[in-house]
Design brief:
By secondary structure, the protein is an alpha+beta fold. The chain has a domain at 72-143: Orthogonal Bundle (T-fold). The protein has 9 helices and 13 strands. An 8-stranded antiparallel sheet has the order 1-2-6-7-10-11-12-13. It has a 3-stranded antiparallel sheet with strand order 3-5-4. A hairpin with a 3-residue loop joins strand 4 and strand 5. Helix 4 (87-102) crosses helix 8 (250-259) and helix 7 (156-170) runs antiparallel to helix 8. It is globular, with a radius of gyration of 19 Å. It starts with a helix and ends with a strand.
Length: 295
Amino acid sequence: MINRRRFLAISAAALASPSHALPTRWRGYAMGADIGLTLDADPVEAKHAIASLRSILEKCETLFSLYRPDSALSELNRTGHLKSPDPAFVSLLQACNAAYDLTNGRFDPTVQPLWQATSVKEVQNARALIGWDRVRLSKNRVQLGQGQALTLNGIAQGFATDLVVHALRKAGWEKVLVNIGEYFASGRQWLLGVSDPVHGLVEVTHLKDRAIATSSPGVMLLRSGGAHIIDPMGEYAPLWSTVSIQAPDAAAADALSTAFCYASESEIAATLARAAGDYIAICVRPSGKVVTLQG
């Protein structure tokens, strides 16, 4: 999670760059990922934009982190309910609900108990707890089903990316590339690459006022031996080595890139056809073949 001293040290390093260097690039670490901000501005002008990230990311940590015992998510998983949740927490769970509906349950944050399962019996018991339809959500309360726990790792980074973009635009910053684990390219055309952990760079794309999120299930394995991206429908082996989604917002891109790792080509195409907005899926087979689908 975010390290305050690391954040300040990297910010200071960015501000010490030559004033004529354009664009300004800042790098840091938050929400379990390397993050960054690139602006069409000199470092002196960019310092206000860089500083504005601190409160946003710290708030996201206090709400969505699985690793902070005092976070809202940790409290929810520990007690099974959350009273008077922060509006941002409710908004993220509403985004989860939309992704669950769009993917016909392929995206489901209630897979969290599977992260701790190590035996066949534990996996069976954990799978019996899966079901986003058992979660009750209102602006005043979040209630989990008996024994359930959530992970927001498949959407929280995208949601945080959208929060940062909104704050920067409100402050007058338009030409900016935000990377909070997922990317949003704002204000002009930005060049981005899609990489696969086995096959390297597989695609190059230009984005403007759109998000892109990438998931590669094989980069980390669970104690049970399965991929770190878990399919709520019980598939063990991912169908794709990497899935990258371009979307109008980063939260949706993040959720779909997570869900599609186990989805067939026809299922992905059908889901994109139902989605409101312009979506593109860049999917890499284990062989390295790239399949591009558009909704």
